[in-house]
Here is the input.
Amino acid sequence: MTCKLPRLMIAGTHSGCGKTTVTSAVLQELVERGTVPAAFKCGPDFIDPMFHTEVIGAPSRNLDLFLCDGDTVRYLLAKHAENAPLAVMEGVMGYYDGVAGTTARASSCDLAVETGTPTVLVLQVKGMSLSAAAALRGFLDFAPNTMQGVILNGVSGGMYGFYREIIEQNTGLRVYGYLPQDDAAAISSRHLGLITAAEVRDLRGRLRRLAELAAQCIDLEGLQSLAQSAPPLCWKPAKRTQASGEPARIGVARDRAFCFYYEDNFDLLRSLGAELVPFSPLKDTTLPDGLDGLYLGGGYPELYAGELEANRTMRESIRAAVQGGMPTLAECGGFLYLHERLEGHEMAGALPLSAKMEKKLHHFGYVTLTAARDSLLCPKGESIRAHEFHYAASSDAGCACMAQKPLQNRAWPCVHASDALFAGFPHLHFYADPAVAARFVSRCAHYRKENAK
Here is the structure.
């Protein structure tokens, strides 16, 4: 299938160069002008899409070439941008930083090439003069790419003309403007990246300030024209996956503590017949009535451990449901919530485990999970791609799967699983293998029938 989709990628030279700030500024100013784009994030990131979503008022989606194949990524891009005037993608890490840190596979560049998307690179020039042009020449010449321009971050208006001249003369790239340093638009960060959108003080005011800066300092018309130059997007339709059994009601933990989800996972579950019922382990006293399954996503339970502990009735409700056989998928933060204790605080206690936060990052990046035995999501021997990123350490991370790092001789056991449970640190994208989502929904529907007898 083919469609004409104006699209643009805003990538960066490295993590922390200001990709999310620039992307949010561009998105917000486009919205202010009456043009509401579709927003996407390259790679396995949950936080940056929250800022996109806050700006455009609709879910931002992830596009990931390790978790999904090229046709699936192009399908998801076309599907979610179908009614938008253009699509804006934010890159991940540095432009060429991909799988294993030694390849460009699944990098921002890989996604831009795979989707035929023109790229504008965000560059911080602090401490550089002519070297800024040299750095850009390196990015331009390193490998085949779609780079067409650059936006300068942290540059004053007085120095912008100087940098624009040396960059355009020495690289041939077009400079589409700049963003100056502005404390009124700054967003803080912590151990997994930026703080979440819900935690930013006066987020709307900061976004409005970013839009003002974009209107003054960035060539929005030029960026829109560049997006229009993208070639037609082509993809092959995916085979439709179906769940067996009746529809099922799946409770989804969604609040400040549990907010790391792929929106496409929700879409796929709904298409398979699931009714998703949100609830808050922080605020609600018990689980919603009539649930047939639980989906406990990742997030920051360690930051709200005291509040989670204080909600004793919810903890008891979760424990009873899981130990009573309700099908449950728990990823990372959700897995920690099922522990007996987290950082000394009592959690749900569905698993006889304890966890603590450490200063080092554990098992960061992509993995391929191979099931060591039959379970809720995977039969023995089947593999599914996933990713991990966490500072938490569990007294027992599980052994139902073996996690293998791509292109590296590193593997470790993980995940607690049974025919009604899949709980561990890995995060799953259901479009990596839609059959996984279908098994989950089918098992929930079966649980519904069992409990109706």
Q: What stands out?
A: Confidence is low (pLDDT under 50) at residues 189-194.
